[in-house]
Amino acid sequence: MINPKPATYEPAPLIEPGHTFGSITDKIAGVVLTTNQPLSWFVVISIGFMIMGMLGMAITWLLIKGTGIWGVNIPVGWGFAIINFVWWIGIGHAGTLISAILLLLKQGWRTSINRFAEGMTIFAVMCAGLFPLVHTGRPWLAAYWLFPYPNSMGIWPQFRSPLIWDVFAVSTYFTVSLLFWYVGLIPDLATLRDKAKLKPVKIAYGMLALGWRGSARHWQRYEHIYLLLAGLSTPLVLSVHTVVSFDFAVGIIPGWHATIFPPYFVAGAIYAGFAMVLTLAIPLRKIYGLEDFITMRHLENMGKVTLVTGMIVGYGYISEAFFGWYSANKYEGFMIWNRMTGPYWMYYWVLVLCNIVTPQVLWFKSVRTSTLGLFAVAMVVNVGMWLERFVIVVTSLHRDFLPSSWGMYYPTIWDWMTFIGTIGMFLTLFFLFIRFLPMISIFEMRTMAPAAKTHDPEAH
Amino acid sequence: METAHTLPPAIHGIMAEFETPKALIAAAKRTYAAGYRKMDAYSPYPIEEAWEAIGHHDRRLSFIVLAGGLTGLLSGIGLQEWVHLYAYPVNIAGKPLNSWPQFVPVCFELTILFAALSAVIGMIVLNGLPQPYHPVFNVEAFSRASRDRFFLVVESEDPKFDRQGTAEFLKGLDASEVTEVEP
């Protein structure tokens, strides 16, 4: 029998050769412990902060006037607030996927990107959380609609409702993501404390580092819970978008009431999230000269994940259309036909173009290894995934069961200001993060250095 | 009680500095073999062999996290059953009051939340953090423990500890520097 020796394939290194523990530390910590920020940092944060001001204006006016300033109406009672909520929370999912699921799968390449992807998760969830909060119109009264305690009439929240599941899922997700992020930061905060020259800076990082000193006894417990947190975050992240999809799927609206929703939403979340990680990683590695750590191999891997999850999303669209026809249900059939040819037909087909057709260019290695190509695809996917939520929400609602109740949805200027404003808020928070905290995990990168190999490869 | 034991030790211990993780692990193994137990290794990133070499493995966190998760699960069940069976029983779409499958998502989320909180708080508490002061920071070179150097400290509380003898022993372990640690 012919038993040819399998061809050995040596993947590109995850870190450019020649780096030591010291050079890794200095390079990443140097971005934070300096007074010289690149000009682009000032440009982005100024623009981000101005756009965030617009968000402040939009929310202030909303609190004064009420939700009547938005474009929501009957039949389209759910508009931009839920669209943007789902879009942002989906973006967050890639951060947890990278930090938890890829850790459990022992994917070494996650190390270069997990820190800022986790940061992205936290800020995206903050943007997401803003919408359910302000859509109540009077958030100071919303506490007893959302949190489990009775109001003054003895009325409790309804635990049979997916909306209350959502409150628990999203607040747990935010808390656990924050814990995971902070735990990952502790050893790096100790590094910043030890490297800082100025006393106040030393004290600030020192307080946050909790007196971490790199003791082996501490590291053992640390690694133990880091793995446990990854194991807990993995089902959590899958549950969060599942519960978000329940907001729709548990209802009886044609176009929402579908069993494909949970897996299709989770895949869409990871798809949108990886697109956002690429959107952030490509400019950052350029601005801060981090090409040694975020290599082309990292970008290419992210391109592959984007392609795969994009095709799962494509499968979701196809199955929606197929079951619209195969169910022989008049309402389901009308819904999908109206989605494709009704007043919002253009949104549907642009979404197909953005989410299914365009990412197919990622089959080509030349696109996956071109920063410009990847960035362009990522931007298209960002837009496409927003359109997906728009189409799911608006086209399912605007044709009610009775033609006399049919309507259209037109977002107002305040809707747009709130939505674009959260992008400003995200940019502001994200760029503050890369100014004050190491955007790549320094201690995990040290384990990638050649000197960290304590096993003798010959011994095995 | 002997007075000598109640006196504070003159020094915290003796610290040896190493340039490579391999040297640290080898030294820690030999120190353990020589009978020292009250010691600690310090490294800029987690090294499994290092805590194995000093004979440390704490499994308590597994049980703490399990207990946290179960507490979360039980509070989820308790909260929802109590609200919908006793505090606020309402007929929703003809479903039974105890429509438990609809209580699963909140139970699940609370399990994860409590487990994660107990993992992080448990790690911080068992590690004795936050700890603003520790004697090892008195050694100037120790600031590189969070950068690129590896340290082994034999504490003076160890019964085998001997100020001169231990220092001589550590010097024979390939250490680039051996220093006394002020308390």
Short description:
The complex is a heterodimer of chains A (460) and B (183). Chain A is mainly alpha-helical and 460 residues long. Chain A is built from 16 helices and no strands.
Question: Topology, pairings included?
Answer:
The complex is a heterodimer of chains A (460) and B (183).
Chain A: H1 21-32, H2 39-65, H3 80-104, H4 114-134, H5 139-146, H6 162-195, H7 199-209, H8 216-249, H9 261-287, H10 296-326, H11 330-341, H12 345-357, H13 365-368, H14 371-397, H15 413-436, H16 442-446
Chain B: H1 3-6, E1 13-18, H2 21-33, E2 39-42, H3 48-53, H4 60-87, H5 104-126, E3 150-155, H6 163-171, E4 177-181
Antiparallel strand pairs in B: 1-3, 1-4, 2-3
What does this structure look like?
The complex is a heterodimer of chains A (460) and B (183). Chain A is mainly alpha-helical and 460 residues long. Chain A has a single domain, classed as Formate dehydrogenase/DMSO reductase fold, CATH 1.20.1630. In chain A, 68% of the residues lie in helices and 0% in strands. Chain A has 16 helices and no strands. In chain A, helix 11 packs across helix 12 and helix 12 runs antiparallel to helix 14. The longest helix of chain A is centred in the middle third of the chain and has 34 residues. Chain B has 183 residues and is an alpha+beta fold. Chain B folds into two domains: 98 residues, no CATH class; 67 residues, no CATH class. Helix content of chain B is 45%, strand content 11%. Chain B is built from six helices and four strands, in the order αβαβαααβαβ. A four-stranded antiparallel beta sheet of chain B has the order 2-3-1-4. Chain B is rod-shaped and about 80 Å long. Chain B starts with a helix and ends with a strand. Classes of the chains: A mainly alpha (460), B alpha+beta (183). The interface between A and B is large, with 65 and 68 residues.
